[in-house]
Specification:
heterodimer, A: 118 residues, mainly alpha, three-stranded antiparallel β-sheet, globular, B: 881 residues, alpha+beta, eleven-stranded mixed β-sheet, 27 helices
């Protein structure tokens, strides 16, 4: 079942953010870097190494595709339908995880002192 | 172009160079795009300044390096080759992190390796260039120096007379060609100011001997070498650059020497001459001079025929000379030849020093590497528990070894890279420090040096990675740690103990030798030279041997008279050689009523040709009699003075003032009257025991290019007045070499100072290494004996006893090292004796000082492990390993 989006889960944070950057527009590599950096407030800064390793894999897996060229060196990428489905599936998975955590009273604030055992 | 856009270009280039870090398949499909993206990002970062670009680049490097690992899509099984790649990356990253957690160890080891590799490589280059590589001439191994030798007068090496040199060339069978040279200062008056040039006069066939093509133009024609032929001059590349800015049209221009024009016909490449030669001229030896078989003034040089050895050539030329002895019995009997390889002649003086430096540097470097291995071992042992736990969890020993050697490999690689950078820097700096060493113009860091670095760092890496890996991960380690040790001498740390012993010994020898050299240097500086160089200025006024002696004499007399009239000048005079090393003319003399030690009743003396003004200028002490008679043009009564040493050696308790002295070299009848005795002065430098000297009182113009000396209260005013006076006499004369006499005579300290400085830095390095060695050894000992120490403390031993335990072991090791070191110092004695002055080569004071220094270092190094031993808690005995 090549088209079952759940088969691609979980995504790495890099992949997740790259897919996210392509939801509203086609972008070239540097466009993705800028979008991710702005959206995360500088928390995630992609370098060309991680970016293109991820892009190469996402292209191979058929999650994103080439949409055109800005010049002979820079390509634009767009989100393919499968990519969008994977993104949704990953979001659903993450939401579920968060729900489970909240149900057990785990919040993003630190745990009370003394509860941690070595 | 702004600085920041250059930063972007450099960053882009670096980025491109680092792209190989990314996975191969990604690179294959996306490399152009990656570059474009980085350039865009760098272009934006540039607006925030060059620093932002650097930060971006750093981020990129890290990102590229870890990109193989990033984006590992969880949930999708990795293909096998990806997986292996990932594990590799992860392991390297772990090694890196493990090192980064111990920055002191990491930085110390990398720097030690880098300095070691850098310095050793630079010194290797130095030795290779000076001693090993052939001279920079075609087939340079066939080049030899050729000198005369007179066994009967014990003259080992003499310059060659031109007639004899020509006969040698004509009659021999072993040489392609024999030629000769002599140096000559020339004054070129073709420019605005007269310029003094360093010239070399060459006899015919000089070019055949060297076989070196000119960089431009040509060599002399046969016609130009004939004594009646046209004038011509060949210039050096240095002079060509300095005067003509490398203009090809310089060939054909005319230099003017002594009022005659010399067209420039060629330029010799910079590598051709080791000395600062400006011009070459033919000797143009006249038939008359060729007949003067006692006029020895040429440095002979020859090229051997292919396959002829130096010994064969020497035999051949000796036969030729024997034949000449039969032909010219008056002048040529009793003379023989001396032939040496040209390379040996040039580099002989530096051989011993260079080999010594290379040996010391290599020894230090090996020890440094072994030390790093020791330190790594300490680190491994500290993690013994971690390794044991890993082993218990099923990690193989191979894994553990791989983990340790990966760290060693990282240290080795970083050290090698930094080392090459250090070597490049050193090779640039060395020629400016070792100014007296030959062939410094040839020194570069070439592939031989770099392959040397490669071999040595490979060796180093193996030592720092494999030994700790194998020793530190022994299967029985946990049991060994649990059992405790039977003591330092139990064979557990034999490798390290031996190492530390060697280090201590080497430190003793080096510190001891450095102390000796420093003391020797100090004693040199306080030697009483017998004269007063302070306040004396020396200079040259150009004049050549080919000039009319009467004219030159007039110049000298006028100049000295005018100088003495200056209000700030107390005395002025001239001498052929200043009292400093290098002016060692030796003559045979006969004194009426005395029998000298030579076979013919003569005695060998040093000689200076001086004026009375010179003796007054340098405040030479008058012991008996009177100074030479006044320097005058018409003075025909030839007089000499001798020094006190002459009296002590050859005529103790006699009065020789007023007796007649014959200078044998100047032919029969060259008789002088001894007018007085001078106090003994350090004529050959402070380090040399003064020998008997004869001071010949000069006739004007006898020595055309002497050293002028002036005692003045105002050296600056003198420079100005001097130019004016010389212009007034002859405006075509160049003045050169104007400097204080102290600078000349203190030149004798340069070598001892350099020796002392080099050896002191070795000694410091050796001390630091010995300290590190002691520290790492005893850290190991204490770590391994923790359990034993804890038990002892638990049953009532005091912490002080534990300190004593460590201290005793350290003291025993130290004592062994000291004894070995004293032995080494005694062995170094032979090498040092030649350079020491005023101190015995085996000096108890110096030895005591070095022992004290080493003991201090040892105490500092062992303090931390000792304190650690004292702080062991008794409960540690209960803790299991």
């Amino acid at each position: 079942m090549a088209h079952d989006p759940n088969r691609f889960l979980p995504l790495s944070a890099h992949q997740f953010h790259i897919l996210l950057a392509l939801t509203d527009a086609d972008r070239h590599g540097y466009g993705v870097i800028q979008d991710v950096e702005q959206r995360t407030g500088g928390d995630m800064r992609l370098g060309t190494g991680t970016l293109y390793t991820a892009i190469a894999r996402l292209v191979t897996l058929g999650l994103i595709g080439e949409s055109g060229r800005e010049d002979d060196r820079r390509r634009y990428y767009r989100l393919l339908p499968l990519g969008r489905a994977v993104l949704q599936a990953e979001t659903r998975r993450l939401e579920a995880l968060v729900r489970h955590a909240h149900a057990r009273g785990v919040r993003s604030s630190p745990a009370p002192a003394g509860t941690r055992r070595s | 172009m702004s600085a920041s856009s250059r930063t972007v270009r450099v960053a882009a280039r670096l980025h491109r160079a680092l792209l190989w870090l990314a996975p191969a398949d990604v690179r294959r499909d996306y490399d152009a795009e990656m570059m474009a993206t980085f350039e865009a990002a760098a272009g934006d970062a540039r607006r925030a300044g060059p620093w932002a670009v650097c930060k971006l680049l750093l981020h990129e490097i890290v990102d590229l390096a870890w990109s193989r690992r990033a984006n590992r899509p969880a949930g999708i099984t990795l293909e096998p080759h990806h997986r292996a790649e990932w594990i590799q990356t992860w392991a390297w990253r772990q090694a890196w992190r493990s090192l980064a957690r111990r920055p002191a160890f990491f930085i110390a080891t990398v720097l030690t390796l880098a300095f070691g590799a850098g310095v050793t490589t630079a010194v290797f280059s130095l030795v290779d260039t000076v001693l090993v590589k052939p001279l920079p001439y075609p087939d340079a191994n066939a080049l030899v120096t050729v000198y005369e030798q007179s066994p009967s007068t014990r003259e080992r090496r003499s310059l060659v007379a031109p007639g004899r040199l020509q006969d040698w060339h004509r009659l021999n069978r072993a040489f392609v060609a024999i030629s000769g040279t002599h140096t000559e200062s020339l004054t070129d008056t073709s420019g605005q100011e007269p310029e003094r040039l360093a010239g070399v006069r060459v006899t015919p066939r000089f070019f055949d001997v060297y076989g070196q093509q000119p960089a431009a133009g040509r060599w002399f024609t046969d016609d130009e070498e004939r004594d009646t032929g046209p004038n011509a001059v060949v210039i050096s590349e240095r002079f060509w650059t300095r005067r003509f800015n490398r203009d090809p049209s310089a060939i054909g221009r005319v230099l003017i020497f002594g009022g005659k024009g010399y067209p420039i016909v060629g330029v010799m490449p910079a590598s051709f001459t080791p000395a600062a030669t400006d011009v070459w001229l033919p000797t143009k030896t006249s038939a008359w001079l060729l007949g003067q078989r006692e006029a020895r003034f040429l440095n002979g040089v020859g090229r051997l025929k292919p396959g002829v050895t130096i010994e064969q050539a020497a035999r051949d030329l000796a036969l030729v000379q024997e034949e000449l002895g039969r032909q010219f019995p008056k002048t040529d009997t009793g003379w023989s030849v001396e032939i040496r390889s040209l390379k040996d002649a040039r580099v002989e003086s530096s051989r011993r020093g260079l080999v010594l430096v290379f040996a010391s540097v290599s020894a230090l470097w090996l020890i440094a590497v072994a030390n790093i291995a020791g330190l790594t071992l300490v680190q491994v042992r500290r993690r013994a528990r971690e390794l044991a736990v890993r082993a218990a969890l099923g990690a193989s020993r191979g894994r553990a070894i791989a983990m340790v050697w990966r760290e060693g490999l990282l240290i080795g690689a970083l050290g090698a890279a930094l080392g090459v950078a250090i070597a490049i820097g050193l090779v640039k700096v060395i020629p400016t420090i070792l100014t007296a060493t030959p062939r410094m113009n040839e020194l570069t860091l070439d592939w031989r040096a770099l392959s040397f670095t490669a071999v040595t760092t490979l060796l180093a890496t193996v030592i720092v990675s494999v030994i700790p890996a194998v020793v530190g991960t022994r299967r029985d380690l946990p049991q060994m740690v649990a059992m405790g040790s039977r003591g330092v001498a139990g064979g557990r740390h034999r490798f390290q103990q031996g190492l530390v012993l060697a280090q201590v010994a080497l430190s003793v020898a080096l510190v001891g030798s450095a102390t000796l050299l420093l003391r020797s240097y100090y004693k040199l500086t306080i030697v009483d030279r017998g004269f007063d160089p302070a306040g004396v200025v020396t200079f040259h006024v150009a004049a050549g041997w080919s000039e009319d002696r009467y004219r030159v004499g007039l110049l000298q007399t006028q100049l000295l008279t005018r100088l003495s009239e200056l209000p700030h000048v107390q005395a002025a005079g001239l001498t052929n050689f200043l009292p400093a090393p290098g002016g060692s003319l030796r003559y045979s003399v006969r004194v009426a009523g005395l029998t000298g030690p030579n076979a013919d009743g003569t005695m060998t003396v040093g000689s200076r040709t001086v004026t009375e003004g010179y003796l007054r200028t340098i405040r030479a002490p008058l012991v008996a009699g009177s100074f030479c008679s006044q320097f005058r043009m018409d003075d025909k009564a030839r007089t000499v003075m001798v020094n006190q040493r002459f009296l002590d050696v050859h005529a103790p308790n006699q009065t020789i003032v007023g007796r007649v002295l014959e200078m044998m070299q100047n032919g029969p009848g060259a008789a002088y009257t001894i007018t007085g005795i001078l106090g003994t002065m350090a004529e050959d430098g402070p380090a040399v025991t003064p020998m008997p000297f004869v001071y010949v009182c000069s006739e004007p113009g006898w020595w055309p290019d002497p050293e002028y000396v002036v005692r003045t209260a105002d050296a600056r005013a003198l420079g100005r007045d001097l130019r004016q006076i010389v212009n007034g006499i002859d405006s075509k004369r160049a003045i050169f070499g104007l400097r204080p006499l102290t600078e000349v005579v203190d030149g004798a300290f340069d070598q001892p100072r350099l020796d002392a400085a080099i050896l002191s830095s070795f000694a410091s390095a050796a001390l630091a290494l010995a300290g590190i060695g002691l520290y790492s050894l005893f850290m190991l000992v204490v770590a391994d004996r923790t359990r034993e120490i804890a038990v002892r403390l638990a049953i009532g031993a005091s912490p002080a006893e534990m300190i004593r335990l460590v201290a005793t072991a350290a003291a025993r090791l130290l004592a062994g090292g000291l004894i070995l070191g004293v032995g080494l110092t005694a062995a170094a004695d032979r090498v040092l004796r030649g350079v020491l002055f005023g101190v015995a080569s085996f000096d108890a004071g110096a030895l005591a000082a070095s022992v004290a220094v080493i003991a201090t270092v040892a105490i500092a190094a062992v303090a931390t492990p000792a304190i650690r031993a004292a702080r062991v808690a008794p409960t540690d005995a209960l803790r299991g390993d």
